[in-house]
Structure formats: C-alpha cells, structure tokens
## 1
Amino acid sequence: MFKSGFVTIIGRPNVGKSTLLNYIMGEKLSIVSPRPQTTRNNIQTILTTDDYQMVFVDTPGLHKPRHKLGEYMVKVAKDALKEVDLILFLTTPEGEIQKGDEIILEQLQDIEIPMFLIVNKIDENTQNKVAETLEAYGKKFKFKEIIPISAIKGKNVDVLVELMQKELPEGPKYYPDDMITDVQERFVVSEIIREKALKLLSDEVPHGIAVDIIQMKRDQRGKYTIEVDMICEKDSHKGIIIGKNGQTLKRIGQYAREDIEKFLRANVNLKIWVKVRKEWRDNPSFLKELGYKTKK
C-alpha cells in the first residue's frame, strides 16, 4: 500500500522550520538565517521513498504584519493550513507557553487535521526546561504526537519522520521519483543569495532586501551565467550592502556562488548589482513583479 500526503510546518518565526525541512531532505532548499521572517514563499518539497511520498509546505512564520509584504506572508501561512493531511507545529523549549504560540494554536483549535507538537532546539536547553515545555503545551492543546527534537543535529528527526509516515493516507505518487521541489531553480537561487545577505548585513538592512534574477542561462559546457539585481529601500542601505571597496557585496557573491554551485551541480558565474527602490515592500505592482501575490 503506497501512502502519500501533504504536510505543513507552522510556528513562530525563527523556531527552526526551514532547518528541520532541510535536515529531512538532505538538501539546502529553504533559506536558513538567524533573523526572523526570512521565508517568504511557501515551498513544496517532495520526499519520495518506495513506500510513501511526503509533500512539505514550508510556510512563512505567522506574525503581526506591518506592511503589504508582511500581509502576504501571513496570508500564505494561513492558506497552507487548508487541505493538508498533517500539521507540524514547531516551537522551542521556553518552559511556559509563548504568547505567539498561543495565538497561533487558538486559530488552529477548530481544524480537524492531525497536529504534532515538535519542540525543537532541545540540544540548546536543559532537560527540565524541555520537560516543562512538553507538559505545558500538552495540557492546554490537543496534539496527536509530542516529539522533542534537535533539527540542526538531527536528534529524533528519524522518529518524527516515522510517525509522520504512519499518519499519511493511502494515495498516489503526485510527483516523479527524482523530483525534490516544484519551485523553479531561479527561485531557489534567489533565496540562496538573499540568505547570504541576511547573514552578512547589519540589522537595519535585511528585511528591506529583495533579489530579482535578471538572467540565468547555461552554456554548452554546462556553466551558468546568473545576473541579479539586489533591491534595497534606501541609498544608505546600498552603501552598506556594497561595503568598503565593494568587499561586503563580494563576500555575499562568493558565499552565494558556492551554495548555488552545490545546488545546480555546475560551475556558476554570478554577477550582482545593487539597486534602490524606495518602499518596495509597500508597492503592490513591484511585489507582483517579484512573484508575491498581494491583496487587491
């Protein structure tokens, strides 16, 4: 009996949703950054074995939106809860229930879909704090399974995947065996570049950054040429991104190219230009150009 189904990962920003997805897949498919609200689009990632196929939807973290891009991110997160077979609710050991978690879980109370509580980052906390967290959440909300894990180290992730498999319904193979994501290569490449910028830039810049791939072509030898506009909101941000003598932009490009070459399994010539588009996050037409479907 072959099983298949759709799984959504949800939780506060920066609890490790993308890290967990990346560990399960063994591929760097979702942007990972120490800054919150870094995942902007829901990414379908496909895990296929001889017995089952899991299609993951990695959602942006739920948060209070402050601009149109934020509204889009929250809408995507809520839409991802519809018509899935399993919800993984991810949190971290804080001892008591976090207010952000409480708000999210109250919104999920009426949804009749199996939900697992996944307490991540147990390697960074004491056993007592982990136990207190498991007990607090388990008492207040109804979960089908409660599993403590370390996504970054892979602790208990195999147990989680086994329990997820049991929850999948009997179903068809939705995607070919060798397909790991339905996201275009261009999008994954742009996310890799944005991740490097998030890691290297100062606090006031990152969420005002977008990456627009102008050209991505492959020559007869298999080498890619990728030309990119990195969009920021202020002239002062442009200077920070470029850095003294262009050093910051050079490092962003160098680190991004290394990961892009691993992802594409090919040599890459990467060119990045920095451009200013003031208040682009509140510009519906420009957001649409970048692939974000905003409210009318």
## 2
Amino acid sequence: MQSTEHRAVDSEQVTITNIAQQLDQDDKVKVGGIDCDGVIRGKIMSKEKFLSSLEDGFGMSSAIFAWDMHDVLYTQKNSIANEKGGHGDFIAEIDLSSYRRLPFESNIPFFLLRFKIDNVPVFADGRSIARSTTLTLANKGMRGLAGVELEFMNFQTPGQDGYESLGQRPNLASFLDANAPRALRPITGGMFGYSVSRPLMTKDYFHSIYDVAKELGCPIEGWHTESGPGVYEAALAVSSSERMADNVSIFKFLTKALGVQYNVTPCFMAKPLHGMPGSSGHIHISLTDLDGTNLFARKDKDESAPFDDVAHLSDIGRQFLAGLIDALPDIMPMVAPNVNSYKRLVENFWAPITLSWGLEDRESSIRVIAPPTCKPGATRFEIRIPGADLHPHYALSAILRAGLRGIEREMNIYLPPLSQMPGGQKPDKLPNTLELALARFQAPNSVAREIMGNEFVDYYAITREHELRAWREAVTDWEFVRYIEHV
C-alpha cells in the first residue's frame, strides 16, 4: 500500500512554542483520550491550564478505565483502576502532533492524549499500545501501513416525543425509552450499494462528512452507499497504522457530531438490524521498510511456492500471514469486542466465520491482495473479521504484533487457502460468541498473552466479562415478543 498520510499539523515541526502561537486567539481547548471501548473521553480546558500542562501533563481520573461505555463500574477488581486506589488520577500527556480544529464546534482546538502512571504508559491505553507497536517495528527497520473501511447505518434521530418533532432538538435516549429500537427509521430505505442517487436524499450530511474528514486530517479515499437501508461506507486513506487508529476514532467522532446538526444518528454497531448485512470494519495491513518499500511484495513470482496464492508474497509476507493465521482464534476479542460483534459473523452475509485465507477471496477471514491483481507496492492483507464497532488501536496493534510474531518465529503457513481445501475438509470455525472468544483469549498459553502481555489480557477480559454479564441479564425485545402471550 502506498501511504497518503496527512498530518494534523502541516509538515512544520510540532513544538510547544508553535502550538502556543497557534492558540494565540483562543481561550479554551478540547482534549480527549480513548478508553477500552474505543470511546473518546475528554473535556474542555482553559488555554492557561492547557499551556501549563504541555510539559508534564495533567491529572485525569482513572475511572475512565474502570467503567463501561455507560459509566457502570466493573464488578470484578482489576489492577488498573480500582476502589482500593480511590480511582486516582492518571497523568494525561498531550500529544501535540494530534492538533486539529473542530469545524463543527466553533473551530475549537482539539488534542488527543496518552495516559501514564508513575511515568509508565498505562498498559490498557490504546494510543500507548499503538505507539509501542510502532516503535517495536521501527527498531526492526519496519513500518506498518493500514487502511480501514467503515460501514455504518444512519437513522433519523427522533425528537423528544417521536418523529413529529424532527425539526426540534433530537433526543434519542428518550425515544428509545418509550419505543422499540425497530421503530427507528433509516435515513433511506431499501438495499442499494454504490447508488449515485440515494446520497442526494441527504446530500448535505453525506458531503459534509467527506469534507470535514479531509479537514480533520483523516481523508476518505472512497465514499459510497453500501447494501442496506441508510448504509454508508468510508474507505479511510492509507496512513501509518498508528495514525490510522486515531483516524478511525476521529472519523466516528466527526460523523456523530455532524449527525447532531442534521438530525441523523450514525450507528457503528456490527449488526444493527436482524436479517440485514452487518457493518464491517475491514483492516488492510502491510509492512514497509523505513524507505517505504513494500516488504510483502516478492520481486519475481515464486514458481515453487507452497500455494499459488502466495507465489507473489515475500518470505516476510508469508511469515506475517502465518502469524495471523496462528493468532486469530486467540485474539478475537480484540477484533470483535462486543456481544453484538458476533451477530455479524454468520453465514450468507459476506462475513467470515472460519479460520481461512485466500488470494482475492472475500469469503475468507484474510484476503490476500497481491499481483497480478495489484501492483507490487500495494501488496497487503485484508483482515475481514472486524466490524465497525472495532477498537482501532487494539485491533491494529494485535494484528501487527501477531504478524510480527510470525516473522520472528519464521512461521510456515500450515493451512491451505480456502479454495484449495482438500475434498470434504472444511476449515475450523472461529469462536462465534464473545464467551467462546474470551475463553481462548485468556487461556494460560494463548497467543494473546504472548503478544499483549498478561496484565492487558487479564484487564481486558474483565471488561468483556462485564459486557457478557450485562447481556445475560438483559430482557430483549425478541424474548418479550416471543413469550409474552404463550408461556
């Protein structure tokens, strides 16, 4: 993949001095860090407080890693943030290179954060994990490039009393308190992927997303409707893997912010509606050397390759693929993090359900993209398991670390491509529930523990167990409709 990376701050060197100059006319700044659900958590700071924090950071409550996306505390104790420690502060370090302005919020300056405690990066902080992964690759003379394709459904945001007050201030929570989720209406009906006419129905919203994404430094390469009611797909322009993780988070933020202006609620659930295709978050990944040469590409076709599908892959590319194949069943919670993630991973909906790979094979978990269908410099892997609900920093870091493990161990590909499975033999199925995925993720000898560390695995498992517990205790609309009369 060829990088078209955009920096939030144009090529000038980022220093405290020039950031201070950039903020000369401002009196407040917005900052945000990313929690274990991939949600940006932040606040407004006075410019004076912000500038005084540029060198040493500022305190921010560790509670953001002690509760779920609805601010409910985890019931299991964990080592990162707990009552015994009083949910004390982390030190939030301001990432100056993340500077951008938010055009949908009075052009306020915005910066992303990383978190430390006792001068050590918080082991569950996704941005710190992504930075560590980048540095590990750089020390080996490598650089990760990534592209992410995000599909998402868009609903009309109802007013306080329902759809008759669409012109008033929207209140989705109040509407859902009084109505079933299926009462929400997508902004367009029917199924029409790659439509040139459907976006015209909400053209201001549609085009503003593209324009603001470019303005915020997370440009879109391709932008179109996807199959499903009110579904859009954004292919974010290739960048460094670390930058791409930030771009996914910023893209979701800007889309939701613009949705407020247009009374639209964008939905990044992996499976919003029963009977409809899910919303994917496909990850394209490659490695280059520090000069930008693709390390997965082979100079000449290997006529003696173990499989025709890897004839144009370098030895490093094959080892990276072998590492992915070996790791995927054990890192599923990092690429499919929620209960709902696994509702998307079902048959007949263009989503993978098996541990599989193949050249240009969109039915497999890992699609190999290599010559002759692309230029050597664009050789890459598309990991098709993630949905739009992915935590981008966790998912990209896990994928890169899994591939690097394959390179370091010089692994061989033990599994034939999906199209060449021996007669009657089927590939192993991936874990198809969060519960099964967690069992593999936190097993004593899991690949996840090897590449992510025990501290992270133990903590993240607690957060996912919390999701499972909340799901088990919920009474769903399906249950109510099915049983209200007949039991």
## 3
Amino acid sequence: MVAAHYFDGRTSRAHPVELYVRDGQAVLQDAGGDELRHAPLASLRVSERIRRGPRLVTFDDGAYCEITDHAGFDAMLAATGHQEGWVSRAQNSWRLVGLSMLGLVLFVVISYFYLLPWTAVLVARTIPASLEAQLGRTTLDSLDRGIVKPSTLPAAEQQRIRDNFAALRRPADPGHDYQILFRHGGGIGANALALPGGTIVVTDELVKLLGTGPAMMGVLAHEASHVTQRHGLQQVFQASAVGALTAYFLGDVSSLLATVPTAMLAMRYSRDHEREADAFAVEVLRENRLPPSALADALQQLEDAHGARRKRSDRANRDSKEAEKDEEDGFFSTHPLTKERIDAIRNAR
C-alpha cells in the first residue's frame, strides 16, 4: 500500500488516499478506508521516473494520483511485473548518461572528420556543369567589383600563356571549359584563382614573378586540378556543414549555392586538396617533359616574395592589424604552404 494524493479532474482539490493492488486492479481508498475507485492495471498510464519528481498514475478518464514515495511505489510496480522503459532507465543512470555523452562526442568527431567531407564531395559532384559554370561567372563578377582591376599585361604575353597551357597534355575533363583570364591583383598580389567551371584567374603580379614558362605551367596545372576535382565547391560546402547536409539529403542545393561566390573568395584549400593538386601538376609536367621541380621553384619564389613583403611591412612600422592583413594577402591566403609541400614536389618520383 502506498500513500498518494488523488485528483479527480473535476476540482483542483487533492484527496489524500492510499493505493494498492488487488486481483489485477488498482484500488484507491480514502483515509477512512472507504474505496474511492478501482481500475484494471492495463488501463492505467504510469509516468516515467524522475529522481525527485512525483510519479503520476493516470486513469482513463483523466483523473490521476500523485505519488512521492518512490521506494514503495517501485516495490509495488515490481510486484505487478511492470518494467520501466529503456529511456527512463537511461535518464536515471549516470553510467548510461556518461556513455551517451561519450557517444555524442564520438559522433561529432567522426562526422567532422569523415561524414562532413564525404557529404561535401557528394554535394559538389551533384552540381550540373552548366550551373557550375554559372557560379564561376558570378564569382568572377564579384572579383571584378573592387577586388581586382583590369590587367595591364601585354596582350602577346597573355596569349603566350594561354597557348602554352592549351598545348599541355592533361587528363580529359569534358565537364569543364578552361579559360585563362588576367587581372591586376592589387590587394591579393601574386595569385592564381581557380573558379568553378574552369576559369583560372591569373594576376599580373604572378606573371611578373614567374614568367610564362614551366613555373607558370606548373601553377596552372595545379589550379586545373582544383577545378577538375571541384575542390573549391567541396571546401565551401564543408564550411557550410548544416547547409551541405540538408542540401544533400533534401536534394535542394539552391539556397546553398547562393552563398558560393562570397565563400569562394574567402576560401582556404585544405592540405589534402593542396597535396592532391600538387601531385596532379607534377604528373602533367612530367607528361609534357617539363621539370616537376618548376612547380617547387614557383612555390619557393612565391614564399620568398611573400616573406619580403612582410619584412617591408615591418620596416614601415605598420600597426598590427595592417600587418596581419598583409599576412593574409596573396597566394598563401588561399593556398596553404609548408616546407613539406615543396620538399615533396622536389622528391617526387
């Protein structure tokens, strides 16, 4: 027998009662021992256990009992064969709660390092070639609206680079229409940007640094790999984790694509993408009997030029924010560079 408070559903008054089980029936009796009501056990709803909260036993007409004697009520339930659901047991077990938290952490880690990149690749591959080309044009428009300026490079020099690139033997890539465009880089300095669809923007500053020969071809082959593998779109979608997952599972990428141009300009390739693009460029250079070391030389020249720029900033005693901006400008703002990359290219076999 367990003490309880009974609410009949008609008034807010609490009636002190005692609850017990007899012949498969739940019976309520008042303080005087008179039976108030009874009902089959199967018709009752028993609330989940909460550590300090009262348990509720609800009748089919909405009346209910409120019980605070957890030990007595647990014993009564056990005697009737009642078993708590697994959710209720988990909520009241610190061990299961701890295991659940650990499982959640593992899921987040696995999702971030494996599920998210995998999904980003799938989403990038579902973009039709025509839509990818449109995204490239939109991104180029964003570049031209204040980030870069018209090129001052002689037309003959521009055409020489285009002809040299067109003459390169490269893996077939029918989904992309490659075009080499030239712009004065200004704030982005010596740089090459691979846009969705096949457009590669080369700055005048990069041409002045590398020339039109094998070093430039190595950089362009590197950029072509980013286009072929859709690395840019993958990076953008991976940065928009929730949007990418929603887009893939719902099959609607329109809202996510609207953010691509802005995200492309702030994008930073992953080290894996850079290594993949380096390997692609090395193979292209070899296939065309050009020295793979030309790409390593190009990266070293870019690093040296970037370092010289930082030193000039230091000598000019610029404030920390402006110096930090110079750190982020140029080729390495979108193409992370490490000494290991240069060494790997030089040692490639």
